[in-house]
């Protein structure tokens, strides 16, 4: 499956897109006289969007998914040969529009990776992430990760780059030669992405002991209030990430990648 096709599938499962397609179907059904089916399509679309954009209904599901791989205190982690930081949190430079690298919502991955190195958990860190084919003018994400790590105080000779991968599967396969002969690796990625990452890495490199260090937690306990029943864009975005991971795992199982 191409990178572009996988991205298209991820877009289709976005609750907002799904609802829009459902409403479009409702309009078409009404136009041909199938009013009952049109009403059903419109109701299902609206309820689907409300469910995934409302904290009361969406957060328990998303939170349970994240807590399958809860974050760990750095002091409790065992020593390892490498820290592996998966891309997805930074944006590479793209002159003349973007003159320098910029932090994205999951830049916590690089921050935690740097903290692990500075704490002496491992002597080296491998940062993995390239540029997507439709962003050809953008520098590989690993370049941005290197820049951020250096700004956080990690020595340049402790950082190794893998700059070609564009998917979780490629993160693993392209990192494998660099991690050959390694006994234990600490994996750093967002909590919602850890399940697919760990299963993929174990499939590609079964002889390595993998220990997850999650970050970028989206769902935290909060007091019940009327606001929990009102849709908001942040919950909708978190739901999109969750559904994308679920679809991604299904595709990886189908392809025998996990």
Walk me through this protein's architecture.
With 258 residues, this protein is an alpha/beta fold. It has 2 domains: 3-67 and 232-254, no CATH class; 74-215, HUPs (Rossmann fold), CATH 3.40.50.620. Helices cover 48% and strands 12% of the residues. The protein contains 9 helices and 7 strands, in the order ααααβββαβαβαβαβα. It has helices spanning 3-12, 15-31, 35-53, 55-66, 108-118, 141-151, 168-175, 191-204, 233-254, and strands spanning 82-86, 90-91, 102-103, 124-128, 159-162, 184-190, 209-215. The strands form 2 sheets. The protein has a 5-stranded parallel sheet, sandwiched between helices. The protein has a two-stranded antiparallel ribbon with strand order 2-3. Helix 6 (141-151) links the parallel strand 4 and strand 5 (159-162). It is elongated and about 70 Å long. It starts with a helix and ends with a helix. The mean pLDDT is 91.
């Amino acid at each position: 499956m191409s990178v572009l096709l996988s991205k298209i599938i991820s877009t289709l499962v976005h609750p907002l897109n799904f609802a829009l397609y459902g409403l479009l179907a409702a309009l078409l059904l009404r136009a041909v006289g199938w009013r009952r089916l049109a009403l059903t399509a419109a109701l299902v679309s609206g309820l689907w969007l409300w469910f995934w954009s409302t904290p009361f209904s969406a957060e328990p599901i998303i939170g349970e998914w994240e807590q399958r791989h809860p974050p760990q205190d750095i002091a409790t982690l065992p020593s390892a040969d490498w820290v592996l930081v998966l891309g997805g949190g930074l944006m590479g430079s793209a002159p003349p529009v973007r003159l320098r690298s910029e932090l994205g919502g999951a830049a916590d991955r690089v921050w935690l990776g740097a903290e692990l190195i500075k704490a002496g958990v491992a002597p080296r860190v491998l940062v993995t992430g390239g540029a997507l084919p439709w962003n050809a003018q953008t520098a590989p994400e690993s370049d941005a990760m290197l820049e951020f790590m250096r700004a956080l105080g990690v020595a340049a000779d402790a950082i190794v780059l893998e700059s070609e991968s564009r998917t979780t599967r490629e993160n693993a396969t392209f990192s494998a030669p660099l991690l050959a002969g390694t006994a234990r690796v600490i994996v750093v990625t967002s909590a919602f992405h850890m399940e697919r990452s760990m299963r993929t890495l174990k499939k590609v490199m079964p002889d390595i002991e993998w220990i997850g260090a999650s970050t970028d937690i989206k769902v935290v306990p909060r007091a019940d209030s009327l606001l929990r029943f009102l849709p908001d864009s942040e919950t909708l975005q978190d739901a999109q990430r969750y559904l994308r991971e679920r679809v991604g795992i299904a595709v990886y199982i189908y392809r025998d990648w996990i």
